[in-house]
């Protein structure tokens, strides 16, 4: 198969508007994409056992040994796409050596590559050494229940996995500034996440009466103090230390921001509805990502204690704990390192803790070895376009992605 063939196949999947929405079950677009996939990968769907979970899917490829199965993951759903695209977000255009569209990078590229790798191997009568499960939820982007439902199904049947691989880190050349070395960053765990509402109140009044008690001003002062979260502590996990050690050993330099501290982003804000009125109440919504030294509740309490001096109330609106951390010394991690070395010989593999959340956190009760890694070179501009305008993947990189999964399955 050539890269143009791969690009056309992924483009067909991108054209399916598999947008997930809270409170809604998987719509017709998901089943339209399944039909597209069945036409692209006929051998996969005729060979593997298929189970549907309200739009989420699980396929089992029977291997020669069922005692230590592996799972490969990639979600089907995508976020909405607004205006301003140079290529229609669901046009699935192939132009300038790239496939353009929502989901091309997050994560229909992985979904395509996993299935295409299996299709090619099955066509050669290949049987994997171990059972291979392919799972794909239809609601990852909204934190839905698809992956959790599949995990419960597997747990009830006592199935445990020697390796689970989901999205997460990637191969990149910008891991440390002014260094062109290629690093394969494999996520061994995920930080926790918390959404917090910070509210300041006053008696309000006319804007002509300037006062330091203005709720917006107090929020601004506290935000300036809290900044991006460094005041909440700097922590260094064994995984972060190992990441730093490997990078320093290879480059002679230590990476910036190698700790596992708290990061804070400001996402929503509201004050008065009138330009001439001081609000009685103003609030800002923050999203924090944190290591396992905190829980959502203890982080909320810490921020609340700091905010009390500013007369600000802090409420936890939602949150989840940090995931368990898989070992960078395990046989499964070393196996991934070997596959990286085969497909990307110049790459140096490093472990890290992922700031974002993935479906894989739902599977901690069926595996100790869960890793988060998109095995493809991603440049900084492409990274910025995930969930943004003009999301894309290069045709060349898509071919490498198929090669990685084909090699991984072959080497089990």
What does the model show?
- There is one protein chain.
- The chain is an alpha+beta fold and 412 residues long.
- The protein has two domains: 3-171 and 324-336 and 352-411, Aminopeptidase (3-Layer(aba) Sandwich); 192-226 and 262-320, Alpha-Beta Plaits (2-Layer Sandwich), CATH 3.30.70.360.
- The protein has helices spanning 3-14, 28-40, 42-47, 108-123, 146-156, 215-226, 238-251, 296-307, 331-343, 380-385, 395-411, and strands spanning 49-53, 56-61, 65-73, 94-95, 98-100, 130-136, 163-172, 183-190, 192-201, 205-206, 263-270, 277-278, 281-290, 312-320, 348-354, 370-377, 392-394.
- Helix 1 crosses helix 11.
- The longest helix has 17 residues, at 395-411.
Task: Name the descriptors.
about 400 residues, Aminopeptidase, Alpha-Beta Plaits, eight-stranded mixed sheet, about 30% helix, globular
Q: Rough shape?
A: globular
Order of helices and strands: HHHEEEEEHEHEEEEHHEEEHEHEEHEH
For the record, the CATH class of the largest domain is: Alpha Beta
Under CATH, the homologous superfamily of the largest domain reads Zn peptidases
Q: Beta-sheet strand percentage?
A: 25-35%
Identify the quaternary structure here: single chain
Helix content: 25-40%
Overall average pLDDT: 95
From the 3D coordinates, which CATH architecture of the largest domain would you assign?
Answer: 3-Layer(aba) Sandwich
The total count of strands amounts to 17
Major β-sheet annotation: 8 strands, mixed
Give the number of helices: 11
Termini gap? 22 Å
Q: What is the number of independent domains?
A: 2
Which parts are unreliable, with pLDDT below 50 for 5 consecutive residues or more? none
CATH topology of the largest domain: Aminopeptidase
Cα-atom Rg, whole angstroms? 23 Å
